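Sat 14:20. Reprocessing the chain from the morning session after the first attempt stalled halfway. Input below, unchanged.
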Amino acid sequence: MISINGIIEPSNSFDWLSDSGFRYGYGCFETMRFHQGGIPLFDAHQDRLTHSLSCLHIDYAPDGLYDRIIALSNAIDLPNIAACKVYVSGGAIT
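Finished this time. Tokens:
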């Protein structure tokens, strides 16, 4: 399962190879520790992701990111300790 723009879908519903942002590295990711239903230091992770994306001139509004991560963790029944990786693609490169 993955969350695409807040919508939880099967992981095969996104064509990773067709998204030039993923194919050519035009985007960022942030790895966070998921622990007992939450993400320690979430604000620092969110700030770093937002700053990195702004350096690449990728518009990104992190509003609701925490809630989307929690919703996805509930949908896949994530264990109490796990790694969560958030990918943000710059989208199609023209």
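The mean pLDDT is 88.
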